[in-house]
Amino acid sequence: MSTPAAEHAPGLAPADGTAARARGLTKAYGSGETAVIALDAVDVDITRGRFTAVMGPSGSGKSTLMHCLAGLDTVSAGQVWLGDTEITGLKDRELTRLRRDRIGFMFQSFNLIPTLNARENITLPMDIAGRKPDEAWLDQVIDTLGLRDRLKHRPAQLSGGQQQRVACARALASRPELIFADEPTGNLDSRAGLEVLGFLREAVDRLDQTVVMVTHDPGAAAHSDLVLFLADGRIVDETHRPTAESVLERMKRFDVARATPRGTGRRDGEAGGTPGGGVGGGEG
């Protein structure tokens, strides 16, 4: 089992550039006086080869930020790039192809097909795209996630942790440039959740992947290299090489701030529903 990033030597997964970035990223739901600003002119860089966690109070914009960076939701203003490709303004077909070929996704819901076995679920996105997997890479992913003896099992024959490991393998199978994980341990017990976090950590350290994870759990965030804190649609702080204790202390300051009366409630929530692209969820 991997340990949190704070116990890893610095530079274990060396960065070699920027995996994704946003400038002036703004997302508004509604218009006029009833508009809710979910993201307020956010500038952010996601470093390649690192594990980044995104945290904040409910309604702070963390899931919206992930959805916009992943091309799952449209932006109201600003620009988003995946590598050197600007994704804002891409046509639906181009955006679908980009997400399929260059991004991996993990969500609270495992989204496994019950009639397919584990291996078939892992390779399903590539099968739909008519692409053959890189067998050497696929073997490495399967062995890293400890799924070798579960490949012929269907989801109903797997534990929750094993199902999420299959979902993790599916996200990794195409060797994407970036993996987005939205509350990936939200439906798991503590032991299974720790396993999945350990495998995400190993995906960065051993497989040179880039992971962005939205979470509300300080213990989960402690597995990352960097935590970005959002409040009222803005990035207000960050912590490098976090521990569960340091993250919890920072989150307590949000509770104090929210207990203080403010002059406006304009950004006190996010619009509900599933963003464009039809997948995902989690509290903003």
TrEMBL record:
Named from the GO MF annotations, one term is: ATP binding
Comp. bias regions, Gly residues: 271-284
- Show the stretches that span the lipid bilayer: none
User: Looking at the record's lineage, which domain of life comes first?
Assistant: Bacteria
**Key words of the record:** ATP-binding, Nucleotide-binding, Transport
Known SMART domains for this protein?
AAA
- State what protein this is by name: ABC transporter ATP-binding protein
Looking up InterPro entries in the UniProt record yields: AAA+_ATPase, ABC_transporter-like_ATP-bd, ABC_transpr_LolD-like, MacB-like_ATP-bd, P-loop_NTPase
The ABC transporter domain is annotated at 20-257
Keyword DNA damage found:
no
- Location of region: Disordered: 255-284
Which Pfam families does the UniProt record give? ABC_tran
The reply to whether Transport figures as a keyword in the UniProt entry is: yes
